[in-house]
Amino acid sequence: MSAAIRERDAELLSGPRDPLEVLASVFGHRAFRGKQEEVVRHVVAGGDAVVLFPTGAGKSICYQVPALCRPGTAIVVSPLIALMRDQVEALRQAGVRATALNSTLSGDEAFRVRLDLREGLLDLLYVTPERLLSEGFLDLLSQVKIALFAIDEAHCVSQWGHDFRPEYMALSVLRERFPGVPRIALTATADLQTRADLLVRLEMEDAAVYTTSADRPNIRYAIVQKDNPRRQLLAFLRRHQGSSGIVYCLSRRKVEETATFLEDNGIRALPYHAGLDRAVRDANQDAFLKEEGLVLVATIAFGMGIDKPDVRFVAHLDLPSSVEAYYQETGRAGRDGLPSEAWMAYGLSDMALRGRMIDEREAPDDVKRIERAKLGALLGVCETAGCRRQALLAYFGERHPGQCGNCDTCEAPVDTWDGTVAAQKILSAMVRTGQRYGAGHVIDVLRGETTEKVTRAGHDRLPTFGVGKDIEPRVWQSAIRQLVAAGIVRVDHDEHGALVATEEARAVLKGDHPIRFRRDRVFKATEGRGRGGSSAPVADLSADEQALFEALRAERLKLAREQGVPPYVVFHDTTLREMARLRPMDLDTLGRVPGVGEAKLRRYGDAMLEVIYRGVGG
Ligand code: ADP
Ligand code: ZN
Predict the structure, then answer these.
(1) Atom 5 of ligand 1 has which residue's CA nearest to it?
(2) Ligand that comes closest to the CA of residue 386
(3) Looking at residue 539, what DSSP letter applies?
(4) Considering the domain 416-518 in this protein, what is its CATH number?
(5) Per-residue pLDDT tens over the stretch 100-119
(6) What is this structure's pTM?
(7) Domain 543-615 CATH assignment equals 1.10.150.80
(8) Which fold has domain 3-211?
(9) Alpha carbons 466 and 443: distance in angstroms, whole number
């Protein structure tokens, strides 16, 4: 009889483990966070649960602890192989018997996994829904002891969501085939429609539902007006030197160009989009996960299933399609709870482009109407003079008091100005020129520029010609953009971007609808200079602690490289920071640092202590 099987039998005799004991000894955490404990106790007792926590709240613990407390193997359904790989690696590092069954395994390897499953030698098994639902596999499962089913990224079951996976729909069979086994579905997706849909599709209407605020307090939100976007991006990245982050662009070409531009400016950046060779794409993703301080420039093809906890920033060079998309993409920053930044540069052209994409889609009118409303809601967040966090959370039906102190508008309150007359001048110039011209020409007319286009059309003879000389073109641009966001002006894509007045415009022209515009901040090319240097999030460590933190990071990178795994599966930054602050001098004290479980203490304890001794000595 093998040692593994004897170990299993011994475990069966010792009875169920206590959740808190598992949390401490395996994961190295002293206490549950928020509603984790409620969820864990409910599932350990055999109940079904739906867990709707935002990214970084600690969803994994909600099924991983019950998996270790309940007898048998936990089956975890996950949509992506990359996601499984990280989770499995992190669990193994913590001494948990976890593995994944997916298409990357050879026939022999897959056979071995099945054998281990049959023998009860696995604590957690990660599978794709396709694999789980194959008849052979369901049969095999009916012959083994199952601790629970966890359905990760459960929003994939909903057609409302952006990551719809038809195979997820069939997961409802689990209820019939394994009636006594608890199911726990987890997702960070916040919108109400998807949540409701998920309960029905997975037949989990009777499950206990656990929610927390969608707020991500450690993320700073900033939205700037596009001026010279590449320079603005560069200034932003200079503030984040040495940190990992994602830059999102809409097109493949822009991804390539931006990555090259950053490289040319001394910032390590790699491209990622669906048009790249599979091998290149995988290699770039792998580098992003395993190396530190790398910028990944990507289309939205990148992101789902990226569990990297130390993504310090997400930058958008193009406008996403909705608040959901924006929140999901920016949500990839700061999973580890450390300060992170979501930054976006946007302008009138972004609005126009997104609008055109909706107009040109082959879709029924009511679908387009919903999409336009969703885009409008995001524009509202972009143009708000109030707290960004408040505006974002309001979209998800949450009331936030505002003044979060961690967004651009809270930090530097936005000036507004009475724009009623200016708006009337814009509308008048549009109407007098036949609503056939784009913003550039309308502004030329307002400013009294005698361009060839102006004189050819005779627009220099209009009464509105030159009535707006006193206002800079940049400010006119901003005003037009805000009128579009407010639904007073529409960009007509069939007419090559002509500005057209909507119904709402009438009230403005009649003076029944006062307008206040926000005053855009002017971008200065010197912004962000000189602040760079070390990785931003550890700013509150003393100089000595910071030096030790960097030394511990270097050691971690070495340990990770030796095993070919990402550094964060060895230790998270939060754990290294605590080590640097507390300077434990023996294994016992080191073991009390959050994130150091028994297995990691055995494996890495000595190496970490050595770095600390060296730091203290020198
Ligand atoms: P989610 O899946 O909800 O995005 P994760 O499960 O990846 O979140 O956890 C986010 C971070 O929080 C991880 O760094 C994890 O180690 C940490 N964490 C989770 N639960 C706890 C806890 N009870 N105490 C301390 N840290 C925790
Ligand atoms: Zn705020």
Answers:
(1) 58
(2) 2
(3) T
(4) 1.10.10.10
(5) 998 888 889 999 999 999 99
(6) 0.80
(7) yes
(8) Rossmann fold (3.40.50)
(9) 9
